[in-house]
Amino acid sequence: MSALGEADPEVYAAVQGEEARQRDQVILIASENTVSRAVREAAGSVMTSKYAEGYPGRRYYGGCQFVDEAERLAQDRARRLFGAEHVNVQPHSGATANTAVYFALLEPGDGILSMDLNHGGHLSHGHPKNYTGRFYRIARYGVHPDTERIDMEEVARAAAEHRPRLIIAGASAYSRLIDFEGFRRVADGVGALLMVDMAHVAGLVAARLHPDPVPWAHVVTTTTHKTLRGPRGGMILCKEDHARAIDSALFPGIQGGPLMHLVAAKAVALKEALAPSFRDYQARVLANARSMAAAMAEGGCRVVSGGTDNHLFLVDLRPLGVTGKDAEAALGAAGITVNKNLIPNDPAKPTVTSGLRIGTPTVSSRGMGEPEVRQVAAWICEAIRRREDAAFLEGLRREVAALCARFPLP
Ligand SMILES: *Cc1c(COP(=O)(O)O)cnc(C)c1O
């Protein structure tokens, strides 16, 4: 038996349950992925026991020679992967990375122009219930009602009207390419700084399968656990002239000691992302998303904006006469994990929604390809139609588990 199993059967059972869930279910949460064993080993390593406030070579504690090595590897690899001038690999999460940037570049009361949460933006970009919505003056841009794509003319208009100090590009539920160069032009036009939050698409950017924000943004933030396929955490990339402000905003500004086991795991994931096979993986993520979106449309859903250029897409379920909430529950019963999601200009409440967000990073990491994701799309449409039929959903759950067994987790 494992040490955990012996010491703490209750937590052990929860971990085993989670492992079985990930193993036996088709997971289509666009913000999740499944990491390699090497990443997990680093994340579960003895580095969790080490305090290392400060930065490599400039720590407040002794005994940092080995964690320094791990952090320098992570920094070097991130700089190489993204062609960044400066990188900070210590943020505990994506939200914390963003906080450090605001703390470094803004004063309370300054203006931020960012994407409307209801159109795909993120809470940490100025939602009223987030601290950003209370500390800063927030203006929003959205997607055009006809194209359901970001409308750069609207962004420029909003920037001219609100005169923000910071413009944010980047989203959590947007399936189209973002014109980072266009955002920079708008920012320059009003004397604003540009932050790109590439949390969702960082892996695609690393593989050069998505426009690169690094040349255009003053600062780029990201998570490391979404398409980038690393451990949970965040990262900041910036130009050299913002490096000092960003580093000291993160520590001692808002964080204490870095989570060195996760910094080490980030280094491992970044090495994986530098390997040629990572590009093949990201290409599969894209092909799977496109294929699945097309199959969902054939099944009677409306795909928001008509398709996808990245790892995710949104489906409008109204043609099927079901809410996001009910579809999520039916699919859950069939062993398919998705999340309900607002669609642009959704008439339903955020707790109900008219849509689903579907992403392909996890199934692609397991090695599933287009035949498999088309099968899953057909199952989703059928499960939604027969959502009251518990026996059907139970039978489907077994088929889903059989598919998963052919594509084991790393
Ligand atoms: C996921 C996400 C974040 C937050 O990441 P956490 O690690 O959950 O804090 C920030 N910005 C965007 C655009 C995201 O999608």
Helix content: 40-55%
Our count of domains comes out at 2
Low-confidence stretches: none
The strand count comes to 15
**Basic shape:** globular
CATH superfamily of the largest domain: Type I PLP-dependent aspartate aminotransferase-like (Major domain)
Q: What's the Cα radius of gyration?
A: 21 Å
What kind of assembly state do the chains in view correspond to? single chain
Distinct small molecules bound, one entry per kind: pyridoxal-5'-phosphate
The level 1 CATH classification of the largest domain is: Alpha Beta
**Overall pLDDT score:** 97
- Which CATH architecture of the largest domain would you pick? 3-Layer(aba) Sandwich
In terms of structural class, how would the helical and strand content be classed? alpha/beta
Proportion of residues in β-strands: 5-15%
* Main sheet: strands, sense, barrel: 7 strands, mixed
Biggest sheet: strand arrangement: 4-10-9-8-7-5-6
Describe the structure in your own words.
It is a single chain. This protein is globular. The mean pLDDT is 97. It is 47% helix and 13% strand. The chain is α/β, with parallel strands linked by helices and 410 residues long. The chain has helices at residues 3-7, 9-24, 37-43, 65-82, 94-105, 131-135, 152-162, 180-190, 202-206, 240-254, 260-274, 276-298, 324-333, 361-365, 370-385, 390-406; strands at 26-27, 54-55, 58-59, 86-88, 111-115, 137-141, 166-169, 193-197, 219-223, 234-238, 302-303, 312-316, 336-337, 339-341, 355-359. The strands form 4 sheets. Strands 4-10-9-8-7-5-6 form a 7-stranded mixed sheet, sandwiched between helices. Strand 5 (111-115), helix 6 and strand 6 (137-141) form a beta-alpha-beta unit. The protein folds into 2 domains: 40-273, Type I PLP-dependent aspartate aminotransferase-like (Major domain) (Aspartate Aminotransferase, domain 2), CATH 3.40.640; 277-406, Aspartate Aminotransferase, domain 1. The chain has 16 helices and 15 strands. Pyridoxal-5'-phosphate (PLP) binds at residues 31, 93-95, 122, 124, 170-172, 197, 199-200, 223, 234.
